[in-house]
Design brief:
With 415 residues, the protein is an alpha+beta fold. The protein contains 13 helices and 15 strands. A hairpin with a 2-residue loop joins strand 12 and strand 13.
């Protein structure tokens, strides 16, 4: 079962055109500040692109059904250099009830949420409220447990944000933690507080390397960063996120995952998490998560939609989301992934990588029942995002073909 694209002209703030789906208010209209200028494509070329993108998305879904890939359905979106956003869907939101996926549905976006945490930290750095190179002990040193954190005496906030702090990623690297988390998840309303999560995973552990002298991805780093942000400001992280970005940028399809009853959720299928943590396969019952999303907090901590994420990616990676000259810090790679290409690697919650279509900035995300991916192509001023309602899909296999459809249209328009 496949759905045609729903698209809108963000300058109008209403649906500009609809294919199959009924017209209605656009939940995530793009503010004028996000518009890049004259349309990148003519109306005819735009219509052809929309049709081709939908066909490619539908083909990916159809192929997955033939190969037994866990791909119930997907939402996807792209944003053009001129700021226009186009949202799409394919497949099923709920397999048992045969409910079609629709373009505006939300899913857990996992670690893509780290991009917002780093942006909050950078915004605070721009206003002098947070020094990224100051010791984390400046804000957390009075906590009784802090001296038991690996590398505690030498940690900076920047070490946490670029994953050079030297701690393990417990969700996938600690079998004992997986068992404990599975026990927590048996109560839908239970979750570990940030302090409990830190205590369960890294206290008294040997660091993987001295602070600032290596790279290892870990959610614990971002939990500590979240605590430092809240201590530095005296405010809740989610309040800062709303004030700095979600409200002023009109990212209405992005919500803090701070409760189980979040609107517009697609059913998620936790194929991988069922094996890791013993969770049920279906993660939404009666419109509510069966796992409390606050377990993730600043390790991710959002439900999202590709239409909002491509707008976020374009604004963030073009330097328009944060007030101040933030891009040099955001994109500075701590440890290059390739010594011959020192610009490739991980910055402040951004993976800087080469794809078959050129340089990309972005991030992926995993949360029980969902996989998400966001990529911005700086050489083309275009971003693309996809979410699949299974945490075991081969989502990265589909992104190059989808991106290729958009980039080919842009190249043809410029030739």
């Amino acid at each position: 079962m496949m759905n045609a694209a729903r698209l809108f002209d963000p300058r109008l703030g209403i649906l500009g055109a609809c294919l199959v789906l009924a017209c209605g208010p656009a939940p995530d209209s793009t503010p004028d500040s996000a518009i890049g200028g004259e349309p990148s494509l003519s109306p005819e070329a735009t219509a052809a692109l929309v049709e081709a993108f939908q066909a490619e998305l539908d083909a990916a879904w159809a192929q997955a059904q033939e190969t037994d890939e866990n791909f119930p359905g997907a939402t996807a979106a792209f944003i053009l250099p001129d700021g226009r956003v186009f949202g799409f869907a394919t497949g099923l939101s709920d397999v048992d009830d045969e409910i079609p996926m629709t373009p505006d549905m939300r899913m857990g976006s996992g670690s893509i949420g780290k991009t917002y945490v780093a942006a909050v930290a950078l915004q605070l750095a721009m206003t002098g409220e947070l020094d990224l190179d100051a010791p984390v002990s400046t804000w957390l040193g009075d906590e009784e447990w802090f001296p038991r954190v690996p590398n505690h005496a030498d940690l900076t906030v920047r070490n946490l944000l670029n994953h050079s702090a030297g701690m393990i990623q417990p969700y996938f690297e600690d079998p004992g933690f997986a068992v404990r988390l599975g026990e927590v998840f048996r109560d839908p309303d239970a979750y570990m507080t940030p302090e409990e999560f830190i205590a369960e995973t890294v206290l008294d552990a040997e660091p993987l390397f001295p602070a600032g002298q290596g790279y290892h991805y870990s959610d614990v780093h971002y939990t500590l960063a979240g605590l430092a942000i809240e201590e530095a400001t005296g405010r809740a992280y989610y309040d800062l996120l709303d004030e700095f970005f979600l409200d002023p940028l009109g990212l209405d399809l992005t919500l803090a995952a701070d409760r189980r009853d979040l609107p517009g959720l697609a059913q998620g299928y936790a194929h991988a998490s069922a094996r890791l943590y013993g969770t049920p396969l279906e993660v939404v019952v009666d419109g509510r998560f069966i796992l409390h999303p606050l377990q993730e907090w600043t390790g991710g901590g959002l439900v999202n939609n590709p239409q909002a994420m491509v707008r976020w990616g374009k604004l963030l990676y073009e330097g328009d989301a944060i007030s101040g000259d933030d891009l040099p810090q955001l994109l500075e790679v701590g440890f290059p992934a390739d010594s011959t290409k020192p610009h490739l690697g991980y910055g402040l919650a951004v993976s800087v990588a080469e794809s078959e279509h050129g340089l990309t900035y972005g991030h992926g995300g995993f949360w029980p029942g969902y996989n998400s991916l966001l990529a911005y192509y700086p050489d083309h001023g275009m971003a693309i995002s996809i979410q699949i309602n299974s945490d075991e899909s081969r989502m990265r296999d589909h992104m190059p073909n989808l991106a290729g459809v958009v980039l080919e249209a842009l190249e043809n328009a410029g030739s």
